[in-house]
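Technical note accompanying the year-one report. For the benefit of new consortium partners, we illustrate the data format agreed upon in the data management plan: each record pairs a sequence with a structure-token string. No post-processing was applied to the example shown here.
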Amino acid sequence: MKPTLGTRMLSACQFRSSTVSTGVRLPITQGKLILSKTGDVITGVKGSVGHVGGVKLTNGDKSVAVRNVTVVANLVSGSPDASKLTAQIAGKRVDLGTATLGTVTLASGKVTVSLTAISLSQDAATALNTALGTTLTANTSLGTATLTARVVGKGKA
């Protein structure tokens, strides 16, 4: 299955006492997901989904843009989940964090992938701390997200 992707909703995270919205919608610019099935049950998902846009984080008079998030799905049945998010922070692409994939559904011409836990990576914590003067640490929870996309081509539901 090679779905082409539409849009996704990313729950914004709260950094200390920052002000954040409850959700951020980032349009999908490119991507491909390959779903593995056993019978009617989806058992894995591999591929990547790129997004345009991002969020601006501020701490006092310092700010940094976290842009162009890419979800890299690597959930294979019987193996540890190796999924992650990457993003540009202050113009440099870094691993934003690890992602634990939850339910994957395929219905009505759409694939939905839930990211049940997103944890900040050490590289992203360092980049954000440098830019914002914060003291974020690796494995800080960034919340959850849901990726929803239209399916086209051979994988069309």
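Partners are asked to follow this layout when depositing records. The helical segments are 122-132.
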